Amino acid sequence: DLARSTKLRKDDIIPQSDYDAVQANLRATSAQRSTAQDQVTVARQQVVAAQQQIAVAQAVVKQRQADLDNAKLQLSYTTLVAPGNGVVSRKNVQPGQVVSPGQQLIGLVSSNKTWVIANFKETQMEDMKVGQKVKLEIDAYPSEDFEGHIESLSAATGARFALLPPDNASGNFVKVTQRIPVKIALDNTDPQHPLRAGMSVNAVVAVK
Predict the structure, then answer these.
(1) Which of 24, 87, 100, 138 is the most exposed place for a label (fewest CB within 10 A)?
(2) Do 133 and 189 share a domain, yes or no?
(3) Is 152 left (phi over 0), alpha (psi -120 to 50) or beta?
(4) Which CATH number is 131's domain given?
(5) Cross-strand pairs, 138
(6) Closest-CA residue to 92 (of 80, 74, 75, 76)
(7) pLDDT per residue over 136-159, tens digit each?
(8) Are residues 138 and 164 in the same domain?
(9) pLDDT tens digits, residue range 37-52?
């Protein structure tokens, strides 16, 4: 090393040229060490910068994913999904029309199950029970026979569900025979004779 070479040169044991070579090698080694340290510093700075770039890129990816999820959500709002199978019977909007929240856009008639609501007089209800067979005569198909059964009997008269229920608060009372809604499920249907909502039906219940 340099200390040993300096002592040997002082004692005139090694020639000046050897001593100069040791000093030159020392300076070169020191310069290389300094360069290596600078390279390490630069590399560390690059690592820090790269980590910062990664963090920024990850933040951008998260933001873009949030934007994509929001776009998908907004797109889902443009798709109308019916609560069940059915046929559109009325359309209240046109393409391009601006609609409001809660606005009725279409009328849907369910096709999952067909039933009839028959309004029988209260005087006819005494012997009626759930499950009884019903013969149905439909005005649209007078030559066809349809059968069904009583599925449920309403717990109130039809007048109680009217838009303007009867008001007897004045004390004036006129006795009127009330009608009781009875739900009749069809046991047989014919695709060639489709039943549509609002058709006129005459129901005959087999009470015995």
Answers:
(1) 100
(2) yes
(3) beta
(4) 2.40.30.170
(5) 201
(6) 80
(7) 999 999 888 899 999 999 888 876
(8) yes
(9) 888 988 988 999 999 9
Distance CA 138, CA 134 (A): 13
Q: What is the pLDDT of residue 67?
A: 96
Alpha-carbon distances of 60 from 55, 66, 183, rounded to whole Å: 9, 10, 60
Q: Look at residues 202, 191, 83, 56 and name the one whose alpha carbon lies nearest to residue 134.
A: 202
Query: Comparing C-alpha atoms, which of 115, 110, 106 is closest to residue 84?
Result: 110
DSSP code for 161: G
Asked whether residue 93 falls in the same domain as residue 154, the answer is no
Burial 157-172 (b: 16+ CB within 10 A, else e): beeeeeeeeeeeeeee
Does one domain contain both 69 and 30?
yes
Q: Are 208 and 126 in contact (CB under 8 A)?
A: no
User: Is the same domain home to 20 and 72?
Assistant: yes
- CA gap 144, 157 in Å, rounded: 30
If one counts the domains in the chain, the total is 3
Which residue type does 154 have?
S
Q: Is the pTM of this model over 0.85?
A: no
Give tens-digit pLDDT for 25-39: 777 888 888 888 888
For the chain, strand residue ranges (E) read 86-91, 106-110, 115-121, 133-138, 146-153, 179-186, 201-205
Distance between CA atoms of residues 140 and 188, nearest Å: 16
